[in-house]
Amino acid sequence: MYEKDIREQKVNIIEMVHTTKIAAHMSPAMAMLEIFNVLLRDIMDIKNGIDDERSDKLVLSNGHTALALYAVYQTLGIITKEDFYTYKKKDSRFGVHQDRHHTPGTIISTGSLGHGLPNAIGVAYAWKLQGKSNRIFITVGDGELNEGSIWESVIFAARMKLDNVCCIVDDNKSTEYMPDIIGKFRAFEWDAVEIDGHDEECLRDALSKQPKGRPYVVVADTVKGNGVELFENNHAEWHEKAVSDEDYAIIMEELR
Amino acid sequence: MNLMTSEFYTTIENVLAKDERVVVILGVSGVGICVDLSKKFPGRFIDAGIMEQSIIGIASGMSVAGMVPVVYGQSTFMIERPYEQLKVDFGYQKLGGNFVVYGGSTECGTIGATHCCPAALSVLSVIPGMEIVVPGSPYEFTSLFMESYDNGNPTIYRTSIFCNSYNGSVAFGRANVVKKGSKATIIAIGPMLELAMRALGDEDVTVLYYTTVAPFDTAALQSNFVNDRLLLMEPAYQGGIMPQVLKALHDKKIKADFVGYPHEFITNHGYVAENAPMYGMTAEAVRKKYKELIQ
Asked: Using CA of residue B28, residue B31, residue B36, residue B40, what is the dihedral sign?
C-alpha cells in the first residue's frame, strides 16, 4: 500500500544525506519506515494534528531512528523538504534525536536509551488518572532492551494495567544477547505478538489491536538497512555514516 | 526520628486533597508507609517499588501530561542512582517535579557507606534548573514545599533528622540573616544552623542561613558579606556549594574554611552524632576552626 512512498522516502533520505555531506543513522532508519508509515497513516488518531493534546502520541525511545520519522513527515506534508534538509544542522528542529521543545510531534525528548519507555509509561498512567482515552505508542530497539530501566517500567505498566500503552520493539538484531523477547514481555504480563516489521498488513493488523487491561507489545522483526543491499550487507558499518559519491550511485541504481 | 518526614505525610495529605494534579510515588517497597493515604487517594499515592530510575522517568512523563509528581525515597537512591533521569528527564526536558528525600548525607551511615550520599547536594547543583531545598525544621519543610511544589521546576527537598531551634520565617530562594557581626561571615546550610549558633552564636559574626541552595541567594551574600573571612557549614562534603559562593563573591578577597565531611567514604557505621567529633562537627571544633580563621 505504501511501498512506493517508502521507496521514495528511502531515496529522499539518501539524497539528503549525500547532499548535506553528513553522517546519519541510515541503516537503523531503513528498518523503521513501514512501522512509522502504518502508525501515522492508519493507526494513530492524529486528525487534529500531531501536536494537538487530543491526539495519540508517539515516543521514539530508540531516538536515533528519528531520521525515518522525518522522512515520513515530509511525505505527509507535516514538514517541508527544506525542513528535512536541516537534519543534524546547527539550530535545526530536526536533530538526530527529537527535542520536545522544538521538534514537531514530540512530547518526550529522547537520546539516552532506556528513558523513552519509562517517560511514556508515565504519560500513559497520567492519562488513565485523567480519564483520557488516547493511546501512546513507543518504539524501542532490541539493543535498548538491555537497559534495566526498560524492564522496571515494563513491570509498572503491567501492574497499573496500562492498556493505553503500545510498545513496538524494533528487533533489528542489534544486540548480541536478548533471546525470547516476546516471552520476556509475556512473563511480565503484557499482551504480546511477534510480526514481520516490514509487512504492512501484519503491522496494520497488530497495531490496530488494543487488548483490554494489559499493556501491549508488538515485537517487529526488522532488518537493519532494509531494502538497501549495501546497508544490509554491512549494517554495523552503516549504523551512522556519510554517503560517498560512489556509494550514492550504487544505492540510487538499486532504489530506482 | 525524622520529624520532617512525619510532617511530609501531613502536608502531602492536605496537598493531595486540594490539588488533583498531585501524584505521590514512593520508592520504599515493602515498608507499608501510609497505607491509609493509598486508600484515600487511589492511584495518586502509590508505592512503585524499588525501581528508582523508572520512578523518576515515569514521574517526568506524568509531568508532561500535566500532573505534579511528588517522589519520595531515600536520598542516595533517589538522587545518585537515577542521576541521568534527573538530569535528562527533568533537567533537559524542563519539567516540574518534586523529590522529597530522607537519609541525606550520612544520616543512614549505620547501614553502611552505600547508604551515605554526602555528594548529593553538589552533584545536583550542576544540573541546570534543578532546585535544591534544605529545610531545617518540619515547619520550614512545609512552608518551602507549599511555596514551590507547583512552580514548574524540578525541586529536591532534603529532609533531615536534625532540626534547628531557629523559628524565623523562611522563603524559597531567600537566605535569612540570623545575626549580624563584623569578624566573619558564616554560611549555614539547612540543619547546620543549629551547630553554627551553638558554636558561634555569641561571637561577633554574621550568620546567613540558607534553606535553598539552588537557586542560590547571591544578593544576600553580596550585601551581608563582612570582613574577608568566610566559614561555610554544609551537611555534606566540604565546599560543595563553593562554586555558587565564589560566583557571588568573585570580586572579593576571601579567606575561607569549611565545616562538613571530608572527601572520603563514610565506612565506620557510626551515627551522625557519634561521628561528629571525628569530622569536626562539634561546637568546640567549630569554635576552634573559627578562631584560626579570624587570626
From this structure: positive
Query: Which residue in A109, A123, A129 is closest to B43 by CB distance?
Result: A129
- Report the CATH number that the domain containing residue A35 is assigned in CATH: 3.40.50.970
> Best residue in B20, B41, B58 to probe A by mutation, most A CBs within 10 Å?
B58
Say if residue B215 is preceded by a cis peptide, omega within 30 of 0. yes
CA distance A42 to chain B (A): 24
Percentage with pLDDT > 90 across chain A: 96
- Cβ distance of B62 and A153 shorter than 8 Å: no
Number of domains in chain A: 1
Predicted ipTM of the assembly: 0.96
Say whether residue A54 is in contact with chain B using an 8 A CB cutoff. no
Partners of B54 on chain A (C-beta within 8 Å) are: 118, 121, 149, 152-153, 156
pLDDT 10s digit of each residue in chain A, 256 long?
999 999 999 999 999 999 999 999 999 999 999 999 999 999 999 999 999 999 999 999 999 999 999 999 999 999 999 999 999 999 999 999 999 999 999 999 999 999 999 999 999 999 999 999 999 999 999 999 999 999 999 999 999 999 999 999 999 998 888 999 999 999 999 999 999 999 999 999 999 999 999 999 999 999 999 999 999 999 889 999 999 999 999 999 999 8
Counted residue by residue, chain B has a size of 295
Q: Does position B31 have pLDDT exceeding 80, yes or no?
A: no
pLDDT band at B33 (very low <50, low <70, confident <90, very high): low
DSSP three-state, residue B49: coil
Predicted confidence at residue B29, as pLDDT, reads 60
Closest residue to A127, CB basis, from B65, B85, B93: B65
Q: Do B23 and A129 touch (CB under 8 A)?
A: yes
Tell me the three cell numbers of residue B106: 550520612
Domain range holding A14? 3-255
3-state secondary structure of B175: strand
pLDDT at B32: 62
B211-270 residue pLDDT tens:
999 999 999 999 999 999 999 999 999 999 999 999 999 999 999 999 999 999 999 888
The beta strands (E) that lie in chain A are given as 57-60, 136-141, 165-171, 191-196, 216-221
**Separation of alpha carbons B205 and B146, rounded Å:** 32
Decide if B42 touches A, using CB distance below 8 A: no
Contact (CB<8Å) A122/B53: no
CB contact under 8 A, B62 and A128: no
Give chain B's domains with CATH numbers. Answer: 3-158 (3.40.50.970), 175-294 (3.40.50.920)
CB contact under 8 A, A107 and B57: no
Residue A195 CA, chain-centre distance (Å), reads 15
Provide the CB-side half-sphere exposure for B171 (13 A, CA).
Answer: 6
